[in-house]
Amino acid sequence: MAKKTSARTKTGKLADFMCFAIYSANLAYSRVYKPVLEELGLTYPQYITIISLWEEDRQTVKGLSERLFLEPSTMTPMLKRLEVMGYLRRTRDTDDERNVRISLTDAGRRVREKGLGFAEVTAKASGLTAEEFLLLQKAVTGLRDHLVTASRGKSG
C-alpha cells in the first residue's frame, strides 16, 4: 500500500520557501560582492548609502534610512564613519535644524565612480543575460514593494 503524503509535507521543505530562496540568494550575492567592497574599503550599507547620495544629494537621515530600509539608529553611526572616512558631510538643515542633511564630498563621488565598473562582476556571476537580469531585478523589486505594503497592513 502506498503512503499518502500530506500537502503540508509536500510544501514544507526548505527549498519550497520563497523567503529562503531570497535570503540565500542575498547571502550568495554578498559573497560575490565581498571582494568588490573590500577593494572600495566599504561595507554594503556604506556602499548603497554613497550610491543613494550620488543619485540625490542632501538627503535627510530619516529620508535616507527609509530609502535604504535601514533604521535611523543604524544610519547615524554609519554616517559618522563615512564622514570620518571623508566621503560625506553632515550639516543641520537651514530651514529646520532638527533635520540633518547628508551630502557627498568629492572623495565620496570618486569612490562611487570607482565602484561603477564592478557592476559587471555581479551581473556576470548571476549567469543571466542582460535582459533576464533586468527582468529578475524588476520582479524582485515588485515583490519587495508588495511585501512592504503588506507589512504595513495595507492592501495592494
UniProtKB/TrEMBL annotation:
<dbReference type="GO" id="GO:0003677">
    <property type="term" value="F:DNA binding"/>
</dbReference>
<keyword id="KW-0804">Transcription</keyword>
<dbReference type="InterPro" id="IPR000835">
    <property type="entry name" value="HTH_MarR-typ"/>
</dbReference>
<keyword id="KW-0614">Plasmid</keyword>
<dbReference type="InterPro" id="IPR036390">
    <property type="entry name" value="WH_DNA-bd_sf"/>
</dbReference>
<dbReference type="InterPro" id="IPR055166">
    <property type="entry name" value="Transc_reg_Sar_Rot_HTH"/>
</dbReference>
<keyword id="KW-0238">DNA-binding</keyword>
<keyword id="KW-0963">Cytoplasm</keyword>
<dbReference type="GO" id="GO:0005737">
    <property type="term" value="C:cytoplasm"/>
</dbReference>
<dbReference type="InterPro" id="IPR036388">
    <property type="entry name" value="WH-like_DNA-bd_sf"/>
</dbReference>
<dbReference type="InterPro" id="IPR039422">
    <property type="entry name" value="MarR/SlyA-like"/>
</dbReference>
<keyword id="KW-0805">Transcription regulation</keyword>
<dbReference type="Pfam" id="PF22381">
    <property type="entry name" value="Staph_reg_Sar_Rot"/>
</dbReference>
<dbReference type="GO" id="GO:0006950">
    <property type="term" value="P:response to stress"/>
</dbReference>
<feature type="domain" description="HTH marR-type">
    <location>
        <begin position="15"/>
        <end position="145"/>
    </location>
</feature>
<protein>
    <submittedName>
        <fullName>MarR family transcriptional regulator</fullName>
    </submittedName>
</protein>
<dbReference type="GO" id="GO:0003700">
    <property type="term" value="F:DNA-binding transcription factor activity"/>
</dbReference>
